[in-house]
Amino acid sequence: DLYIASGAINKAQELLSKILQDNPKYTYSIKYLYYQIYNEEKNYKEALTNLKEYVEITDSIIYADNQSKILNIESKYNHLKISKEVDRLKIKQQSYIIVLVICIGILLLIIIGYLLYRKKAKEKIQNAINILRIENKSITHYSIAQCSGVSFNTVKKYLNDDTIISLNEIK
User: Fold this and answer.
1) Which of 18, 38, 90, 122 could cysteine-pair with 47, CB 3.0–4.6 Å?
2) What is the C-alpha to C-alpha distance for residues 31 and 80, in angstroms, rounded to an integer?
3) CA 10/CA 95 separation, integer angstroms
4) 132 contacts 138 by C-beta, under 8 angstroms
5) Among candidates 12, 49, 14, 48, which has minimal Cα distance to 33?
């Protein structure tokens, strides 16, 4: 650029010819420098050819860079989309687990309630059986007292439970 700007075009061409022409890293810069050299020499046909090649290479680089950026953005978008889907599925799974835990809790409460109800019912039945036994004993004492002509208190005092059970079995 310095040689071209100062008008030393021969020096610029000499230096440019020493640079590797097939290195893709420098191709677009070399094309632009040749464009400047030919433009200074008033060789507009060659200048235009090198300018077109420079523009094509630059456009290709810009296009490739833009495609790379687009692919990167698409990749990030797809990753974000997948992450959100994973999060949504995790939340859905957690809600199922919560519902399952609640259902199991309710079921356990129902079972505990049923067992407590059964226990209370058995206690009531046992109390009723005990009351019936006491009443049955009293009735037996009374019947014996009536049949034998002895007082109720005397029968109650001298008859034990085993004798009453034996008498009840005979009936």
Assistant:
1) 38
2) 42
3) 79
4) no
5) 12
Location of structure tokens 């071209």: 4
CA distance 122 to 130: 12
Residues found in the chain: 171
Cβ atoms within 10 Å of 36's Cβ, excluding its own: 20
Q: How many C-alpha atoms does 77 have within 13 Å on its Cβ side?
A: 6
Q: Give rounded-to-5 percent helix, strand, coil for the chain.
A: 90, 0, 10
Taking residue 140's Cβ as centre, other Cβ atoms within 10 Å add up to 19
HSE value, Cβ hemisphere, 13 Å, CA-based, for 24:
3
Q: Using alpha carbons, select from 81, 74, 3, 65 the residue that is nearest to residue 40.
A: 3
The 10s digit of each residue's pLDDT in 89-131 is: 999 999 999 999 999 999 999 999 999 999 999 999 999 999 9
CA 36 to chain centre: 63
Note the pTM of the prediction, 2 decimals: 0.48
Q: What is the spatial distance between Cα 95 and Cα 100, in angstroms, rounded to a whole number? A: 9
Report the distance separating Cα 104 and Cα 97, nearest Å.
10
